[in-house]
From TrEMBL:
<protein>
    <submittedName>
        <fullName>NAD-dependent epimerase/dehydratase</fullName>
    </submittedName>
</protein>
<dbReference type="GO" id="GO:0005737">
    <property type="term" value="C:cytoplasm"/>
</dbReference>
<dbReference type="GO" id="GO:0004029">
    <property type="term" value="F:aldehyde dehydrogenase (NAD+) activity"/>
</dbReference>
<feature type="domain" description="NAD-dependent epimerase/dehydratase">
    <location>
        <begin position="3"/>
        <end position="215"/>
    </location>
</feature>
<dbReference type="InterPro" id="IPR051783">
    <property type="entry name" value="NAD(P)-dependent_oxidoreduct"/>
</dbReference>
<dbReference type="InterPro" id="IPR036291">
    <property type="entry name" value="NAD(P)-bd_dom_sf"/>
</dbReference>
<dbReference type="InterPro" id="IPR001509">
    <property type="entry name" value="Epimerase_deHydtase"/>
</dbReference>
<dbReference type="Pfam" id="PF01370">
    <property type="entry name" value="Epimerase"/>
</dbReference>
């Protein structure tokens, strides 16, 4: 396939582009900066210049392609307001891409998050909650999946709270960054809450599999580790940085605080069985051993 990819230089996007190119696909990738364009061209992708807010550029990229992988998200999400703005921008982009594919039977794979389901481990059958700080993102993905009824082979790959590579990325990466700033490797609540995780290169394989074969209107879980406790994650970070480890108030974690405090394990059993996805890269706790003081 000739695949249009947005967000192709991010933690997930870079390995996705490499995975596609390494498996016989060609890639047209959105780039908003010279540095992104150079990085994409260096690995063999063709570049389409523009940003996530350039809806006509997005439509053009989708029109030129046999399928789309939508990964881009704004870089500013340090406040509740900037997070909401980023979610709105992503939703508009996703809607534009999906509409361009109506009645074509072409695939589009969007990135989403594993749901928080009180009392049990989330599965692919659980709906995404449309309330809360990231509820708008769930609404956008749900609308994209509904395009299955209009001739779009839409699918969502739900990512866990930490997508990591060499000890960096995701919620664990945010904990590491905060520990460096504050001198404390902290966690909200009692730290017993669990976060699922996946290595970025394992996630990339699942995006390719979903693009190639996922049925229309389906959601899949890119979960390698069902749930490490946040206390264990903070303990490895603290040890690697030589910092004390302790509980901190939820408010210390900014707009992500309420999400950080949730117990949110997730399973990928159906994804592995149906799509044949098998993670092979290091677990989160093993990968955090790459964090350098």
């Amino acid at each position: 396939m000739h695949v249009f990819v947005t967000g192709g230089t991010g933690t997930i996007g870079s390995p996705v582009v490499t995975e596609l190119l390494g498996n016989g696909h060609t890639v047209l990738a959105l780039a908003r900066s010279d540095s992104s364009a150079q990085a994409l061209e260096a690995v063999g992708a063709t570049v389409l210049r523009g940003g996530l807010a350039d809806l006509d550029v997005l439509r053009s990229g989708a029109a030129q392609s046999d399928g789309v992988i939508s990964l881009a998200f704004g870089r500013d999400y340090g406040t509740a307001e900037s997070l909401a703005a980023g979610i709105a921008e992503e939703g508009a982009a996703m809607a534009a891409l999906g509409e361009e594919l109506v009645d074509s039977d072409r695939p589009i794979v969007a990135v989403s998050g594993t749901p928080w389901v009180p009392g049990h481990t989330a599965t692919e059958d659980d709906p995404l909650p449309t309330e809360g700080p990231v509820g708008g993102r769930a609404a956008s993905v749900t609308a994209l999946l509904a395009l299955a009824s209009r001739g779009v082979r839409s699918a969502a790959v739900r990512m866990p709270r930490t997508v990591h590579d060499q000890g960096a990325g995701g919620f664990a990466g945010l904990l590491t960054a905060q520990a460096r700033r504050t001198g404390v490797s902290g966690y909200p609540g009692d730290g017993a809450q669990r976060w699922p995780a996946v290595h970025a290169r394992d996630a990339a394989v699942l995006f390719r599999l979903a693009l190639e074969s996922a049925p229309a209107g389906t959601a899949w879980h890119a979960v390698a580790d069902e749930g490490d406790t946040v206390r264990d994650i903070a303990a490895v970070i603290g040890r690697r940085l030589g910092l004390p480890v302790r509980e901190l108030p939820v408010a210390e974690f900014g707009p992500f605080g309420p999400i950080f405090a949730m117990d949110q394990p997730a399973s990928s059993a159906r994804t592995r069985e149906v799509l044949g996805w098998t993670p092979t890269h290091p677990s989160l706790l093993a990968d955090l051993e790459n964090v350098r003081p």
